[in-house]
Amino acid sequence: MSLKKGLGRGFESLIPTELVDEEFDLTADEDRVSSELKKIKLDEIVRDEEQPRREFSAEAIEALASSIKEHGVLQPIVVTREDGKYKIVAGERRWRAAKIAGLDKIPAIVRTLDSQNRLEISIIENAQREDLNAIELATAYAKLKNQFNLSAEEIAAKVGKSEASIQGTLRLLNLPDEAKKIMVKERLSEGVMRPLVSADEETIKKVLPKIVKEGWTARKVERYFSDNKKKSSAALVKQYQYHKDEDSLSAKYGSVVKITGKTLAFKCKTEKDLKELIKKLS
Question: How far apart are alpha carbons 159 and 278 in whole angstroms?
Answer without folding.
Answer: 76
